[in-house]
Amino acid sequence: MPLHPVLVEKLNTAFEPTRPAPLTRRDARLAAVPGKVHSVIGMRRSGKTTFLRQLLEERRAELPPERALYLSFDDDRLAGIELEQLGFLLEEYYRAQPALRGRESVLWLLDEIQFVPGWERFVRRVMDSERVEVVVSGSSARLLSREVHTSLRGRGMATVIRPFSFREFLRHRGEEPAKEPRRWTAAE
Fold first, then answer.
1. Is there a contact between 22 and 168 (Cβ–Cβ < 8 Å)?
2. Which domain range does residue 119 map to?
3. Domain assignment present for 173
């Protein structure tokens, strides 16, 4: 069975260099723990996808675009996608980038991955067999911190994205004070 045509399209566009979008920088960070699957979780409309896109831009500022890949599964054309398609996607990626397999670490950002039943098995296999850092996101109850930890058998680490903090709100409006809070004046 071949790779789903929508995944082929997404993979081809994922290699293209991206132009940085004017996105408000979030204060959230992924913990620097190697060998863990990072799950970006949070309520709807809190900025998970934006956070993943910021991670992509940060990584691509340091490395070639083919070493950082963002794929969204929130696409009606992918409804009912089977787990085996993720394996085909991995093989197609390394067919297009054979020099990376086993030699270079790559980052896969999988947005709204909960739409693929059984995605946890694929991620565990990839973490065990490839040089891939994986970040998954979603707002489903299946991606709650304890569920990810259980389904990934201790290999998952959650980062919670919440709606803007007051500081992020000020940053978004271009009004963030330049000084640390303890140095603010009463007017600030």
1. no
2. 36-73+82-139+154-177
3. yes
